[in-house]
Design brief:
Helix content: under 10%
Number of helices: 0
Distance between the termini: 40 Å
Strand content: over 45%
Number of strands: 11
Radius of gyration: 14 Å
Shape: elongated
């Protein structure tokens, strides 16, 4: 079974920082794209940032404040969040696309269970 498990969410004051981590578990050989999405209360899930083959992509709302990074050997993706704002509040989900398992099986996409980030004003 392949899973993505997030950690690092919590409550922080505006202007503060948090670092989210997401670890892939199971017989994973490689993950093409890893990223973070978030869903605020009453809103749809939206892209935060993705990382693949040395390339990164950010939503305009987090550019300059958030940094995504990967450790491919550990099947892990991180999201360093600085200068947090109340509008960053939401459940943050880890996403993996193009997952190759040991033995060659491919999985199109896997989502983590989410971790809650709350930014108080």
């Amino acid at each position: 079974q392949v899973q993505l498990v997030e950690s690092g969410g919590g409550l922080v004051q505006a202007g503060g920082s948090l670092r989210l981590s997401c670890v892939g578990s199971g017989i994973i050989s490689s993950i093409n794209v890893m990223g973070w999405y978030r869903q605020a209360p009453g809103k749809e899930r939206e892209l935060v940032a993705t990382a693949s083959d040395g390339n990164t992509n950010y939503s305009d709302s987090v550019k300059g404040r958030f940094t995504i990074s990967r450790d491919n050997a550990k099947k892990t993706v991180y999201l360093q969040m600085n200068s947090l704002k109340p509008e960053d509040t939401g459940v943050y989900y880890c996403n993996g696309e193009g997952i190759r398992l040991l033995g060659g099986v491919r999985i199109r996409e896997v989502w983590g269970q989410g971790t809650l980030v709350t930014v108080s004003s």
